[in-house]
Amino acid sequence: MRGRLPSKWHLVLAPMSLVTLLPFVWLVLSSVMTQAELNRFPPPILPDGIDLGGYRTVMERSDFPRWFLNSVLVSGAIVAAQVVLCSMAGYAFARIRFIGSRLTLVLIIATALIPFQLTVIPTFLMFSQAGLVDTLGALIIPQLSSSVGIYLMTSFFQSFPKELEEAARIDGCSRVALFFRVVLPVAKPALAALAVITFITAWNDLFWPLVVINSEANYTVQAGLTTFQGQHRADWPAIMAGTVLTTLPVLAVFLFGQRRFVQALTGAVKG
After folding, report:
1. What is the mean pLDDT of each run of 10 residues along the chain (271 residues)?
2. With 159 labelled, which of 93, 117, 126, 199 sits at a CA distance of 20 to 30 A?
3. What is the spatial distance between Cα 104 and Cα 116, in angstroms, rounded to a whole number?
4. Contact 152, 264 (CB under 8 A)
């Protein structure tokens, strides 16, 4: 009976997982509809025909390629910074005991409970005084590290066996060499999970780019999609097509790191 239980749950969970795909399927179908079809109420489920006008508008009549490049640069820089800084901070909290270490970690984790909207005004004023408004740096600097990333890496390193570190220290390995040569290679699942979470968060960020970026040339894809919607009219085929193109990198990154993502989260829960 116990052996049959997972298969029964799969019969229940499989249809539920398919339901979560319906919005994306409808998004793809809507991206090949015409403006007239999308203006109907209720909108049709299947298009009358395949119309690629929305994709042509996105690629030929907007700065979407530049917005896409900006998103790649910003998200890539944020991922690289968080993988380095959060892993180093997580290892320090997990292995190095100093006065107030536990309190400091709790305070860092507690910052995740503070909505970014509460700090957006002082953050904007700080970047304005530094002359960084309307630059890609203003999108990167606030996300160089995160409390979620530090917590994830701390939990992983706490579950890391100390015997490997002790053996390396006996062989004369310094703390820095130990971290880069012994610890990081074993921490690939956690680093992959951190990279996936960070990339999705940075890629999907809309609020902060709209606040700190003024020129369309420096928009990310999320902010750029808002230009297809005016006060009285929205170019729905272009919005749907742009959303499909914007979603593809997120799906690719998640599918590529899915296995390590689950491994790292399992380790974090156990830790």
Report:
1. 58 80 90 90 85 93 94 97 95 87 91 90 95 95 94 89 81 83 87 92 95 94 91 86 94 78 56 47
2. 199
3. 20
4. yes
17, containing H or E segment: helix 5-30
How many residues are recorded in the chain? Answer: 271
Task: Walk me through the domains of the chain, giving residue ranges and CATH numbers.
Answer: 63-270 (1.10.3720.10)
Closest CA to 56 of 271, 262, 243, 242: 242
Residue 120: what pLDDT? 94
Reduced to 3 states (helix: H, G, I; strand: E, B; else coil), residue 129 is helix
The 3-state secondary structure of the chain reads CCCCHHHHHHHHHHHHHHHHHHHHHHHHHHCCCCHHHHHCCCCCCCCCCCCCHHHHHHHHCCCHHHHHHHHHHHHHHHHHHHHHHHHHHHHHHHHCCCCCHHHHHHHHHHHHHCCHHHHHHHHHHHHHHCCCCCCCHHHHHHHCCCHHHHHHHHHHHHCCCHHHHHHHHHCCCCHHHHHHHHHHHHCHHHHHHHHHHHHHHHHCCCHHHHHHCCCHHHCCHHHHHHHHECCCCECHHHHHHHHHHHHHHHHHHHHHCHHHHHHHHHHHHHC
Q: What is the pLDDT of residue 239?
A: 93
- HSE (side-chain half, CA atoms, 13 Å) at 139: 31
Residue 104 CA neighbour count, 13 Å, CB half: 13
